[in-house]
Amino acid sequence: MGSAKAEDILFVRKVFDEMQFKELISWNAMLAIYANNRYHVKAVELFLRMEKDGVEPDSVTLATVLPPCGELSAFSVGKRIHEIIKRKRILPNSFLENALTDMYASCGCLKDAREVFDCMSSRDVISWTSIVSAYGKHGHGREAVDLFEKMLGQGLEPDSIAFVAVLAACSHSGLLDVGKRYFDSMTCRYHITPKTEHYTCMVDLLGRAACISEAYDFIRTMPIEPNERVWGALLQACRIHSNMDIGLVAADSLFRLVPEQTGYYVLLSNMYARAGRWADVTLVRSVMADKGIKKLPGASIVELGDRVHTFHIGDRCHPQSEMIYQKLDELLQKIRGMGYNPEVEATLHDIEEEDKEGHLSVHSEKLAIAFLLINTSPGTPIRVTMNLRTCGDCHLAAKLISTITSREIILKDTNRIHHIVQGICSCGDYW
After folding, report:
1. Where's the DYW domain (predicted)?
2. How far is CA 333 from CA 87, 248, 340, in A?
3. Does the residue 356 lie in any domain?
């Protein structure tokens, strides 16, 4: 089922709600519409309503709602679905098992993902790709490579998607030589023509290794036209390694390809800010204003019990807002005692330093973390899903908060999963 317009989805939901008798096929169709159009919260809420109404799900229902659970890091709902699968005894079912593996990995539960994988009665290339991808997302690149090699040792032929998984794993863990070897083997040994996704992984891998010029040369010699993701990976590397010259080339290419894409303007602005070029920061923001381009508001989503809670920057709409802000103030005071100084380089230069710090202190990730610390018992992992790349300040704060609270903090942003334990992040501070 393809994507649909928002008004069409609202209309279908209205028709669905007006149905006097809803058969399972109707529930599954509505779930599929939400899931396929990335209405993850709506999909999970609809599944919870199914449960409340006493509707018994089938394997189609469960397979449909597992990906939204993973996207939202809705671990408790995903875990309950796993229990339903066990109760209904519908395993072995490779489609469901692969969906479970992906769900657990997306929720930051690598151990659970591995248990599902290990219990499979048979594993195809998709199964192996799922577990390789899971280890790669969590920064366990060497383990991902070992699993990929084990798959090869069992005589299974990797496909294009399997190579994306292993190349991404190499990229996340900085395994430059291994990644180059796998990329070369695609054409030389397996006769697979690399696609844009593979080239993006290689540019990201070279960028992580600070091989910016090599990454740029790699793009220029690509046999296919580089798209925004390829140039975006290069711009990100240039921002991190402060390579202004090549970064401007990447930005220029991006603005020609996707002139309305907010994220790349923000990346360029942050690169200028890092270099102290505040006039250029202001210019980028002015261009955005002239074009009517607005920065996508950051949002952080968390699950508590059977409810999904969404937080935005400076959010005071939550019923527990007063407690959340008190907890956040307490946390910030404690981590300042550990040497924490807000990273204000990427905020606007023409506002006062104190205002910059205040702006950073109420980012949605921090509010979400404070909320979960209030409402969960000691030792419970903190899982937060963001709609944007997490900023450097929130990443630093999360590392310090994990230390003072002895909590495992799992931040899932648009770039990767950050698994933070006792102040150390699986990303190695590169994302």
Report:
1. 339-431
2. 48, 39, 9
3. yes
